[in-house]
Specification:
alpha/beta; 12 helices; Rossmann fold; homodimer; 34% helix; 2 domains; 403 residues
Chain lengths: 403, 403
Amino acid sequence: MANCLVAQSGGPTSVINATLAGVVKGNQLNQVYDIVYGGLHGVEGILQEMLVDLTHMSEEENYVLRQTPASALGSCRYKLKRSNTADFERIFEVLEKYDIETMFYIGGNDSMDTVAALSEYAEAHGITNHRFVGCPKTVDNDLMVTDHCPGYGSAAKFIANTALQTWLDVNVYTREEVFVLETMGRDAGWLAASACLSGIVDLVVLPEVAFNKEVFLEEVRKSIKEKNKCYVVVSEGVRYADGTYLAAGEAKNDGFGHAVLGGAGNAVKNLILDSGAAKRVKVQDLSTAQRCHATDQSFVDVEESFKLGLSAHMRSADKGFTGMMVGVKRVEGDVYNVEYFATKASNVANHVKSFPVEWMLPNYRGVAKEALDYMRPLIEGSPVIRYKDGVQQYVVPFYMRKK
Amino acid sequence: MANCLVAQSGGPTSVINATLAGVVKGNQLNQVYDIVYGGLHGVEGILQEMLVDLTHMSEEENYVLRQTPASALGSCRYKLKRSNTADFERIFEVLEKYDIETMFYIGGNDSMDTVAALSEYAEAHGITNHRFVGCPKTVDNDLMVTDHCPGYGSAAKFIANTALQTWLDVNVYTREEVFVLETMGRDAGWLAASACLSGIVDLVVLPEVAFNKEVFLEEVRKSIKEKNKCYVVVSEGVRYADGTYLAAGEAKNDGFGHAVLGGAGNAVKNLILDSGAAKRVKVQDLSTAQRCHATDQSFVDVEESFKLGLSAHMRSADKGFTGMMVGVKRVEGDVYNVEYFATKASNVANHVKSFPVEWMLPNYRGVAKEALDYMRPLIEGSPVIRYKDGVQQYVVPFYMRKK
């Protein structure tokens, strides 16, 4: 029997470790591999042979791992370039040395590209004893083919609940006031749209459509006139027709060619104040908390992330299973249900699934019933979170443990 | 039998409505008053006779009210000035008209001053049929005499958990990085200090002591040198020795003579980047969410807030009970326990209880064991939160209901 390796990459989510827990538990339930290695800090750590042994993880640790936010194995933003042959050779050298038959890579867009690139390299070089399997995760919910992405449901639940709570907060005073909630979402509006699940959002601004300042400010004025308040949700990635980000002043670059955004909320605040559409504007930027506030995990999200790990592990027993990503398919019917399936990682890599324009109501007035019906089941239920002295229990990240 | 009135004032908390629920339930368990009126928008609404009848609230609504954040009766920042005799006359006119014997006022510092002022006015004018009882609430935990303030425990629980979660998030990458968590706390460091309950905070900056930029930056450098990371918590109210706020650029005034703060986190970020102490700094301003994220309520906090309402109601059966605030007293012993007691509202009004300087470790290195022992029981436990479709249930604010 050979071994397997599981690693994580990209931005954290509240449930990314549930998929890791699923792979580990899968091998305990049905042993396909001798050793389940964890690779620290994604491909960056694998290149340096930073591996830990996860094979005999206790049931207790496996449970707490599921509620531990942010990659317990560490992450990286290291991009494996197809032109960099040395990196590929080195990775296969490590896989060979540790007799690793299957490498599971949990991540988003870029990670699926890594899975595709490694399996293509193997095929081109006639290598059949090392295989690569992708497991999706991203709070952005912007991966193709899969119905939705593990990590999205929990972020959406935090956002929807925080929207409701801050709306209750801003309404207690009779004064004229706009509240602006800023969410993540570089290119896709899924996170901002999820705030609409609260039922209280007046205006939601998504990155899929060029921002029309005049239309937006007119809607703010109408809301203020009607009820002295306006609750606005804005995605960090909103752009004007010329491609300039609302948050242009703060845009930087993360090395992947992605702009590092933030500040769309304050940009909206300034627009409103400058135009005189309202006298007072408060901004809440949900920032990092929205992707790691695990005390608000969605039960559905944790369960699906865990089962996706189980499914990926089981499928990998098939010696021909490589270059694939395991996704989630929604089963048609009156009751929400999903199945797991596999698709080529290259179908997912380097694409973005936008929030459908036809699900956006005119003039930023929210999202259509189809959107709410799609999102609602994903935030359903609350797992039993284990606490110690009022603070959630967590697994000490493997990359922090002393050798 | 006469009636009573309960109203809320000041900034919201996650559990301010639990005290309201306690007063209402108290009268159902032990009828002291015919009608329990709710006054909308604090004294501002009472001046306009904006009253609702809460007497027969259902058990279901009472339960959901306890988990509904932000004043369900609405709030105000209207300051009752002792010189404004017309306001006093008008309030007593309304109390007389609705046969209100006792007015319960749930709020902070300013609200206790209102309770004191109204009871002084009554005494000075020989009025004995209208009485005034204060119930404390504030996330800031800065009221005198009471051991702690309802609302603080839940905010502290949210802050401590979010600190842990964002710490896990920022650690996944190997790169040099500082994370700055900004909390509320105009004059008192209780909220910022609560982040230390997570056990992960490297540096905490409280408003009680003048900010020493050099010492702080030196500590950041040490942390970066040691582990490439530094987790900083900063209170919005931090000032330099000359009294200037770190967030000076954004300081405004709220009409009470209080500065409206925000931006201390970004100020710290700029200090660090400008000094070269670290190359990358991320800021999370917890903003409004920290005082209303009721899905993270502390069980102890909700229970105490509710019981404080019960206690205030029961005590008010005593015809001499006026101008008093009901507080929480910690009972000595190995197991955390509290009693409720009464103190003159004037003992509390217009004072601030600071975080003890002797509980601060040198060089921003956290807080002493005494502080942790004090705070820890207050964030203990999680109530059963009722959800509908993944979003917490809430009581529609009484001020929003159609007449």
